[in-house]
Amino acid sequence: LYVGMCFSCFCWHTEDHWIYSINYLHWGEPKTWYGVPSAYADALEETMKEQAPELFDNQPDLMHHLATTMSPSLLMKNGIPVVRTDQCAGEFVVTFPRAYHAGFNQGFNFAEAVNFSIADWLPV
Length: 124
What we know:
Strand content: 35-45%
Number of strands: 8
Shape: globular
Largest sheet: 4 strands, antiparallel
């Protein structure tokens, strides 16, 4: 469960084990999401490392700690496609495996999320 406040944010991350997630906004102000297709995950990581090398020198697995944020416009300037949506109360957002996403709350809200996998996640 997530209680959002005005401008509280969630940093760039993928879901554990690169599985799907679904987020439902029960009530309150919208949540703004930014997403990067999984095909550009390596490019996003490289851009982060280029922009803040000292952080990654000290902590090479920094992207796994949900502690890194960067302007979507800077990612786009580096050739990384970024999509944006506003999630309103009563709406779902689904994230795909290895798709980096980040965002912020536009005000007080209440959401919940769960990770899940489907058959295409399992190696054949």
